[in-house]
């Protein structure tokens, strides 16, 4: 029995278990998050009493800058629309050109068939 009480493994187990308990306890304490602070009655009372903001040169300048940005954006959109229209016209012209080439190829094929049939008829006669 005396050996069991002085056994270093016994002491290591108790030390490890106590350290684990302390670690878990510290983690539980760290996880507690405080809630929001209560509202201030002074702030709540005085928020409503602020006068409305009067336009100043800075706000007027901000409006001018915003208007310029809006106009610039409108110009960009208009230019993009013009490019789209021009691109569509070019696309339509290219498609028409392809259709006319296809039609010529089909007509040439039809003409060859007719000529071949005409030669067959001549040979038969």
TrEMBL record:
Residues 23-57 are annotated as: Disordered. It comes from the Eukaryota. This is Uncharacterized protein.
